[in-house]
Amino acid sequence: MIIRSKSPLRFGLAGGGTDVAPFSDLYGGAILNATISMYAYASLEITSDEKITIDALDKNEMLVFPTLKELPLDGNLDLHKGIYNRIIRQFQLEPFSFRLTTYVDAPPGSGLGTSSTLVVAILGAFAAWFKLPLGEYDLAHLAYEIERVDLAMAGGKQDQYAATFGGVNFMEFFSGDKVIVNPLRIKTDYLNELAHNLVLYNTETSRLSSRIIEAQVKNVLAKHATSIDAMLKLKEQAYLMKEALLRGELNRIGELLDFGWEHKKKMADGISNPVIDDIYATALRNGAIGGKISGAGGGGFIFFYCPGNTRNQVIHALESFGGAVKRYEFVKQGLTSWSI
Predict the structure, then answer these.
(1) What 3-state class would DSSP assign to 202?
(2) What string of pLDDT tens digits covers the 340 residues of the chain?
(3) Domain boundaries, the chain
(4) CATH of the structural domain 3-185, one choice from 3.30.230.10, 3.10.129.10, 3.40.50.2300, 3.30.750.24
(5) Domain 189-326 in CATH: superfamily?
(6) How far apart are CA 256 and CA 144, in angstroms?
(7) If residue 314 lies in a helix (H) or strand (E), which one and from where to where?
(8) Annotated catalytic residue within 19, 55, 159, 258
(9) Rounded distance, CA 209 to CA 84, Å?
(10) Catalytic site residue 159?
């Protein structure tokens, strides 16, 4: 038997960065995000060959170990190994032999939450195989702890919850790792129009989000007024975006994206650069009314709100930068597992 699972990547529409401690502990965070038809996949097969095989197809990397109680964390596929280590430790399982195969529809550093979404997919496969007692909140929090605590990877909390729950969610973040996920009931017409008007553009550059997030954390700890004020504005943006989406005021969403982008750049150095600024300005000159870089910033995907029938003009104008437009749809389903 093989257990397969998949979890969706996400757009962070508003409030990005306010889910990162210590800001969320001190001021409370708020984020609006939506999952899209791009996924992280995991396939798990328990074997009897006294080996642990991890095969990351998208990275063209494979590791093989004897059946150990703890796999070494050395920078090679540590997400995969860290999940196994935590599962063994937390659920008091005996070491077991298996083959784990994974694939993600977007590269690392894309800004669509790839790392956290992959963790959720892998956890989902293990949870299904061993029938682990993990509800949605439990699984998302465990994914967060594996990344942020066990592996000491800098980042926030939204991605794990988006990948687990799926759909359009307004999320609130509090001290003590408390998270509340509020699913939004958005009319299908509104979501279809939003997907039509949001152009997802891959700059085909990657960035190390941890460096930007570490700078953001440093600014909060130092009580850097400009950075903290920017984050408070992004928190406000999340509430305004939620209201606009529920009411179907879609052009307002474009305006709020532009509002958020101007403040996001003030959170930390490295979020934008001259190339990104040029791409953004070109999109606005050709009909977009707002946009933002996805994720922490510095590279990866950017999406633009293009009202009416301006999307094709914007796409054509962006061709000169050498990136690519990615087709997608919004999806409601979060983590899904099945057996074959």
Answers:
(1) strand
(2) 999 999 999 999 999 889 998 999 999 999 999 999 999 999 999 999 999 999 999 999 999 999 999 999 999 999 999 999 999 999 999 999 999 999 999 988 788 999 999 999 999 999 999 999 999 999 999 999 999 999 999 888 999 999 999 999 999 999 999 999 999 999 999 999 999 999 999 987 765 556 667 777 788 888 888 888 989 999 999 999 999 999 999 999 999 999 998 888 887 777 778 888 899 999 999 999 999 988 756 678 999 999 999 999 999 999 999 989 999 999 999 999 999 9
(3) 3-185, 189-326
(4) 3.30.230.10
(5) GHMP kinase, C-terminal domain (3.30.70.890)
(6) 28
(7) helix 311-318
(8) 159
(9) 24
(10) yes
Buried b (16+ CB within 10 A) or exposed e, 233-244: bbbbbbebbbeb
pTM greater than 0.90: yes
Rounded alpha-carbon distances, angstroms, from residue 298 to 82, 159, 301: 27, 18, 10
Task: Please give the Cα distance from 310 to 222 (Å, whole number).
Answer: 43
